[in-house]
Structures are given as C-alpha cells and as structure tokens.
Amino acid sequence: MDLEPMDRWTDRVPGPLLKDSTHARFSTRSGFERDEAARSYRQPPVPIAEMSSDVGPVASTRLDEVRLCLCEKLILQAHASGRPGCHNEVGRDVKQFRTQTPEKEPGSPSRPTKLPPNPVEYEKEVYQKGLQFARPPFTFQTGLWEPHAKERMSAESKGYVAGNAGTGETSLKNREAFARWSIVPRRLVKTKSLPDLSTKVLGQKFPFPIAVAPVGVQRIFNPQGEIASAAAAAKSMTPYIMSTASSTSIEEVAKANGDGVRWFQLYWPTNENNNITLSILSRAKKAGFSALFVTLDTYILGWRPSDMDNGYNPFLRSDQIGVAIGFTDPVFRKQFKQKYGVEIEDDMHTAAAEWTQTVFPSLSHGWEDLEFIKQHWDGPIILKGIQTVEDAQKCVEMGVQGIVVSNHGGRQVDGGVSSLGVLPRIVDAVGDKLDIFFDSGIRAGADIAKAMALGARMCLIGRPYVYGLALGGENGVGHVLNSLLGDMQLTLHLAGIPSADPAHLNRSVLEREDRL
C-alpha cells in the first residue's frame, strides 16, 4: 500500500513525544478528533520499510531504536514459527527499508503495485506507527466514518449522501438483514497463510472481492471528487465504477485511474437520444472502461425528503456538478446548440436542466431496448438494480454477463425489500448462469463476508468510501477500502475460513439468528 514517508509524519508529532520517553504514550484527552493540534499531524500510516530517517539527530536515533526492536521481534517470531526462509524475508525487509523511494507527490498519476497488498498489513502499519507516538489520521470504527464526515459537509451534501427514499425503511432493512445472518467460527482449522480474498468475475481474477460503486457528484464532498476516488481505487487494486452523474469527465477519471481496472455505469437516455447514449459508450470504451453497468432503477430520482428539505438537486446546478459528462460530450453539445441556438456556456442553467432530463428521463426502457446496448458495447454488460428472481431470469435470457442485486442503498423505493434478503433466492435461481454482484447496506468486512457466503461474487462499496472522500480525499478513500479488506481478511481467518472462494466461503459458514 502506498502511504506517506515517515519524515512527513514525524515533523507533525509534538516534540515532547519524540524527545522525552516519559511522554511515550498516546494522548487520552477527550475530543481528540476535534482537536486542531491533533489535526496538524494527521497523515496516513506507513509501512516500516518506508520510514525515512531524515528527521534530525534525536528523532533519527529514536526511529532507529524502534526499527531495531521491531526487527528483533520479527526475527524472534520467525524462529518461533519455524517457517523455512522466514529469517531471510525479515533480512530482506531490513535491508530494503533505507532504499525505498518515497510516495509520489500529490497529483502525479497513480499506478497499482504489481503484487496485491496484504490487507492485514494495514493494521500492522498502524501499530508500528504507534511506536512513533502518532495516531492514525482516520478512525477505524466504521460506525464513526459517517458522523466524522458529516462534520466536514454542508447541509446539502450531508442530505444528499445520507438521504434515503421516503421514511428510510428500505435503508434500515438493508442493515437489519445483515444482523439476521451470523458467521459460525470453526476451530483447529489448520492454516498456512492468511485467507486469500481473490475472486473471479467477468472472466477475470481479481485480488479482492470489492469494487468502488458508482457515486455521482463527488465534488460536493471533496474538491478532488472522482479524481481522488479513482486514484485510490487503482492504488488499492479494486475496480472503479464511474457514474454517469460524475462531476468529472470520462477522460479525466480515466487518467486519474491510470492502470487500474475501471468500469462504466450508465444512466440510460431514452431511445430518442440513442445518439447520445452511443457517444457516451464510445467515449467510455476509448478511455479504457472495460465493462458496462446499466442502472435500471433510476430513470427518475426517488422521493428524497432530505434533499427536498434543502431544496437541493445537484444535477440542476450550472457548475458541472453532476453534468460534466454531458457538458463535455460532443453529441450533446451539438444537439443543445441546435435546439436552443446557443452554446452550453451561454446558458448553463438551461443546459444543466436539459442534461438532467436526458439521463433521468422519467420513463423506463423495456427489455427489448437492451438490444441496442448489446449491439454497441462489445464488453461485459451488467444490469444493476435486480431484486426479483423473475427479473434475474430475464437477464439470463437477454444474454448479459452479470447483475447487481441492489436497491440503490434504499434511495429509490421506500418500503422495499432488503437487498441481502433477496440475494439467496436470486443466487439459487441464476448463480450458475451469470456473475452476481451485490450492494446496499455494506458497512464492515463481516458484511462483505456474509454477502459472499450467500452467493455474491463481488460487492460494491458505496457510502463508506464517500465518507472517506469527505474526510481525506484520496487517502480517505484508500483508508476505507483498506480497512474493509483488512477487517474481512481477519474475520475469515479467525472463523477458520481459508479463502473467499465459494468452496470455503458459502452458506455452511452462516446461521440464521432466529434459528439458533
């Protein structure tokens, strides 16, 4: 995992903590997260191999002592484990720590590492940094990501990301559904390594079973918006799904994502605007988006009281929040000028309303309209928003490669079924015929494990990474993704589940609480 070099951490640590051993403890004062002095040195944790010693004579000596202690501890652990070659691995780590290159400067292109990081290492890095008397920059308590993020948001952006349809019943059911399933740990399951989290979807193997879900208007949460989340996804080696409602153009997001795996989500214009749909698909394919997720449940925005209370629709703004793809699309620009006689820049309010009506046309397509998508997209097609066995079976008939069992996080239909609740029956009906993705309600590593055990092959992470984006841009998104993966890996490990493969992670590891 790419994290900040140590010298950029230690110059923010209060001097007494580095110089006086009597202060070698964390501050326990209340309100730490709101303390401005603490904020001044919040930076992400860093692997011990990347710690820089260029921090002055006193701090450098202290860091070297910590390194020595850690290395001695690792060697003792290697002896105790009896693993052949373990001592050499430690030696290589020690030898390399002074030769590691620092993290890239902010703004430079992100590239995924050749080998996937070990998620549990993220935990170890934090404890190693703790030996330098420094706190992690973001909380690891998943339930606090939302309230901490809201402290940094406007009323409008808070209402948008956290809001739900109607009374919020569907969203509540999404979370309650996870509590109805419990993981049953097995003991004395001999292990040779930490669980392998890899999964296979769309004919490819991926190191981790999560993807960054399509979320629009991300610049209302952080000025970097989609640029930050796309870069973080590439670093974490998780696929990035770009939303049609992005506040950044297709081409800019592709550049930020670099060599990462990226997929495109389509809010589907009506047949009268097939020329615009074709232009969007062409741009996405040219920019390296390899799979297409077509959202079926959002041809009009749901009844969202929190947005209405604020009088806030981010898609009607004229500052390209949510309309960037349209405003940069040559076909839409030409069509707008023909209709209104002016360029988009001359009447951006009208242009924003026109684009919003184009991608949220209020009317739904029919199954037969999928033929157009199939004719003009030569990669995998995944239909998002499936909640019934009948619709899942129809997807199989239409010849698409995957579905997302999703209720849009409870943002579209109030009083709906929980997404996890319908997952098992859909898996039973079509799980051997196409790839099943899942979203709606995931907040922790155990949630991912449960959805995978019930038959999903990959989970989409939505609101949690948006909270990370609000808290710390690219680093905040990376923290959320790495935390969820580390949490999941340890959950499987401690439950005696050796991998995320369906041979190991399946319904046999779960029990319904109401049956206990």
UniProtKB/TrEMBL annotation:
Any one GO molecular function term: FMN binding
Cofactor section: FMN
Entry keywords, A to Z: Flavoprotein, FMN, Oxidoreductase
Biased composition (Basic and acidic residues): 1-11
CDD domains, alphabetized: LMO_FMN
Alphabetical list of InterPro entries matching this protein: Aldolase_TIM, FMN-dep_DH, FMN_HAD, FMN_hydac_DH_AS, LMO_FMN
Domain FMN hydroxy acid dehydrogenase span(s) in chain numbering: 134-513
Record region (Disordered): 1-53, 98-119
PANTHER family: FMN-DEPENDENT ALPHA-HYDROXY ACID DEHYDROGENASE PB1A11.03 (PTHR10578:SF143), S -2-HYDROXY-ACID OXIDASE-RELATED (PTHR10578)
Protein name: FMN hydroxy acid dehydrogenase domain-containing protein
Species of provenance: Monascus purpureus
